[in-house]
Description:
- The protein is an alpha/beta fold.
- The chain has helices at residues 12-29, 46-58, 108-118, 177-183, and strands spanning 5-10, 36-42, 64-74, 77-86, 96-104, 124-132, 145-149, 155-156, 172-175.
- The strands form two sheets. Strands 4-3-2-5-6-7 form a six-stranded mixed β-sheet, with helices on both faces.
- Helix 1 crosses helix 2 (46-58).
- Bound molecules: inosinic acid and magnesium ion.
Amino acid sequence: MDSDVERVLFTSEQLQTRINELAKVISEDYKHSNNLLLVGILKGSYMFLADLSRALHLCGCPHFIDFMSVSSYQNTSSTGSIKIKADISQSLSNKDVIIVEDIIDEGRTLHYLVDLFKTRGPKSLQVCTLFSKTSMRKFEVTVKYIGYEIENLFIIGFGLDFNEYFRNLPYVGILSTSAFDKYSSS
Length: 186
Ligand code: IMP
Ligand code: MG
């Protein structure tokens, strides 16, 4: 499967280093919080959230985790509608919430989720994403924690998929042109 990857953009080691840096900043910002909740957006954020959570532990930052399952993409473009496949079941009141995303592209998913979360009355709400294609933004989203700003490239690995393939890669790369055809769904 790795032969389908044209180029590695971020190695596993580089990702770990950046995630540790993010964890240091977050643990400092939330040092007075006793109710920090990270909400990972599935499926893409599963690896990032797992590593961020462990890095936060090493920084002495206690927190809870939860997940929400959302989808909008087919092939490399958004379908335009957000589907909540599984919601969190806990109340957000009195909680310092950080939504954890793998990547923000046009911002459609996060714009929708931030509005939804605000209606649930958290004590505070911020967004953390490993990748941001900031130049592609069509929907406004305020993102406090960003791992990497990237250009308009379709990337895979470390949770990010192309039609559900490649999530399990421990690094992030770009697909070869032949792999686009091979794994495209009609
Ligand atoms: P947005 O709603 O346009 O911001 O898109 C966000 C979602 O699109 C992410 O949660 C990903 O699931 C998906 N996505 C956007 N860009 C990429 C990419 O380069 N690789 C894989 N998935 C992507
Ligand atoms: Mg996806």
